[in-house]
Amino acid sequence: MRFIEKYLSTITLVMTAIAIILVTASIYLIFMVAPLEKVMGFPQKIFYYHVPIAITCYLSLFICFVASCMFLWKGNLKWDGVAASGAEIGVILATLMLISGMLWGKPVWGTYWTWDPRLTTSFILWLIFLSYFILRSQPNNEVLRAKYSAVIGIIGFVDVPLVHWSVKLWSRGIHPVIDIDRDSTGIHPEMLTALKVSFAAILVIFILIFSIRVRYSFLKSELQNGIEHSQVE
Amino acid sequence: MNYAIAAYVIIWAVFFGYIVLINHKISKLEQKIFQSKSNGHQCE
Question: Is B42 a residue whose pLDDT tops 70?
Fold first, then answer.
């Protein structure tokens, strides 16, 4: 934990530089290099960011899950700050995943929303982590609030594998299944390159945003500790 | 075409807005920490 605290600002600077390069490259590859998909046409280009955002959302909620477990085990409030950061960014990414999916669904399926298994489980995931923040906004005891939040963070993560495997578990869904390893021969090489670069760009942006958010929660706890110390004195 | 453009605009607006918001909150907190530390030194 101390190592992370020490190098947070350096990580942020390095990640910003890498993010600018990768984002520019991904936009260029998506709109200038990758060919138009024959059936879906231009709306298919949403896929290059929709998929990486969904996977990064899982990663963010996994961090929340691990940090919640660590908080319940160690009792250190800094783990609660890390869990809250993971949950907050996870909710933002889940929102972007739902919005970009809806904007892709309208021209391709003819509707913004349908109660397809993956869409439904994603919406449930979004609601669970929204409730996490409703709970955190309550002016309770800080330790008690962190404990309840950790429990929701752990239980909420159970929905992530359900979201991921929903298309295989419930066969009546209309959401497409994308398996890069298996289908890589079916995807145009330039489309695959655009997807990989977009994935790298979103991952770097995630690390950047996450490090900034964790720094914010550490500073917040530092200020609170300072106030408590001055009150004791 | 409009749907794809709209999706990318929303994604970038949210990322950029969030980074600006958090950085703004961090600078406010740093200011508060600096003030509380300087007040502590004055008391000593």
Answer: no
